[in-house]
Structure formats: structure tokens, C-alpha cells
Design brief:
The chain is an alpha/beta fold. It folds into 2 domains: about 160 residues, Rossmann fold; about 35 residues, no CATH class. About 50% of the residues lie in helices and about 15% in strands. The strands form 2 sheets. The chain has a 5-stranded parallel sheet with strand order 2-3-1-4-8, sandwiched between helices. The protein has a 3-stranded antiparallel sheet with strand order 6-5-7. Bound molecules: zinc ion. Zinc ion binds next to loops.
Length: about 220
């Protein structure tokens, strides 16, 4: 199964992606991670990425697609993949479709996590992080201990990250909505979109995703 996962920042996309990797037995493909890996390998493709990235330029679509083709040819991705953070535009979606078609595959499902702004704001502004170990808390759902001592590392610096503010959250959310609107329309046209209610606990959302996947 080839699947695209969409969700605004703060919708728990990372957690759900991990669940999907496990339950479907297919890898999560993130272009950012792949580009970093190629650069670290010092491959010829990596060097080409480098020339754009070090100049602060966007990496051209053809190059990303080349990387994608290379990644999809690997054994672990032969039965499918979970695309995360790609495609970002309709052109990229069409190019990905063409690439998949050449492999006799297609995007079987698009999971769009649906979360209203207010919920994302609540989730993110209530988030507290331990500077010692990265353990996250939420003032309402999993409050840090009153003692101020982290349950994981016994550190005492549990803080609110500087960009976990309502203003930043609103901005990112709006940006996400604008960017994905066209893409979702494109995939709706193909009849593959499942909108999943992203409210509530992460486990509840996981269950809804599971139901959505079984529904067809
Ligand atoms: Zn800690």
C-alpha cells in the first residue's frame, strides 16, 4: 500500500506515522531525511543536493523525484511506503503518480488528519518539555510532576519551548491549510482521501486511522 499522510503541525502526525510503519510493515519516506542521508553518504546525488541547499535554493523537483525513485527501489519499500512531507504541490503529486505508475503502483490512500485550530493551539501551548531528556508533558493531559522533577531523567528543567506560542501555532496552521488545500482537492479527485478526526488522545486517532484503512 502506498499512502500519503497529511496533518497540520501539532496533529500528532509523527506518532501516527510510527504506528502505520509498524502496522503496515512499510517504511516512512521523508524527503528531508533522505536528502540528509545522501549528503552524509557523500554520494553523487548528495553532492547535487548540496549545491542547491548550501546556496539556500530549493531543490528542483526532478532531483527529489530521482531520490524518490532510488528510495522506492529498495527492498523494504517494494510493498509500499508512507509519504510524509511529500508531495507538497500538485506538480509533485502528479510526478509521484507517474513514478509509481512506472512501478505498477499508485497512491492507494491519503490520510488527512483533521484538527481544528483551537485544538492545535491547546495542544501546543500546553506542551512542556524536559531539557534533560526531551520527555514531553502537557499541562492538562499529562502534567509535569508538581515537584518539578522529570519522571524520565530526574532533571529539573521542564520548560515551554519558545516557539510553542499561539502566534506561531496560528501561523503554521494557516500556512499548512493554504499549502495542502490544492493537494487535497487533487487527491479527492482521485477518490483516495480519508479524512480522519484528529481530536482526542493519540490512541483514539490511531484507532480511527485503522478503521479508515479497513473501510475500503
Ligand atoms: Zn527528563
Amino acid at each position: 500500500m502506498d499512502l500519503v499522510l497529511f496533518g497540520p503541525p501539532g496533529a500528532g502526525k509523527g506518532t501516527q506515522a510510527k504506528f502505520l510503519v509498524k502496522s503496515l510493515g512499510i517504511p516512512q519516506i521523508s524527503t528531508g531525511d533522505m536528502m540528509r542521508a545522501e549528503r552524509a553518504l557523500g554520494s553523487e546525488l548528495g553532492a547535487r543536493f548540496d549545491s542547491f541547499m548550501s546556496a539556500g535554493k530549493l531543490v528542483p523537483d526532478e532531483l527529489v523525484l530521482e531520490l524518490m525513485a532510488k528510495r522506492l527501489a529498495r527492498d523494504d519499500a517494494k510493498a509500499g511506503a508512507i509519504f510524509d512531507g511529500y508531495p507538497r504541490t500538485v506538480q509533485q503529486a502528479e510526478a509521484l503518480d507517474a513514478l509509481l505508475a512506472s512501478l505498477d503502483r499508485k497512491i492507494d490512500r491519503v490520510i488527512a488528519l483533521d484538527v481544528v485550530l483551537e485544538d492545535v493551539v491547546e495542544r501546543i501551548t500546553g506542551r512542556r518539555v524536559c531539557l534533560g531528556c526531551g520527555q514531553t508533558y502537557h499541562v492538562r493531559y499529562s502534567p509535569p510532576p508538581e515537584s518539578g522533577v522529570c519522571v524520565s531523567c530526574q532533571g529539573t528543567k521542564i520548560v515551554q519551548r519558545s516557539d510553542d506560542t499561539e502566534e506561531v501555532v496560528r501561523h503554521r496552521y494557516t500556512e499548512y491549510q493554504e499549502k495542502t488545500a490544492c493537494l487535497l482537492d487533487y487527491y479527492r479527485g482521485l477518490g483516495v482521501v480519508s479524512e480522519v478526526d484528529g481530536r482526542g488522545g493519540l490512541d483514539e486517532v490511531t484507532q480511527r486511522i485503522q478503521q479508515a484503512l479497513e473501510a475500503r
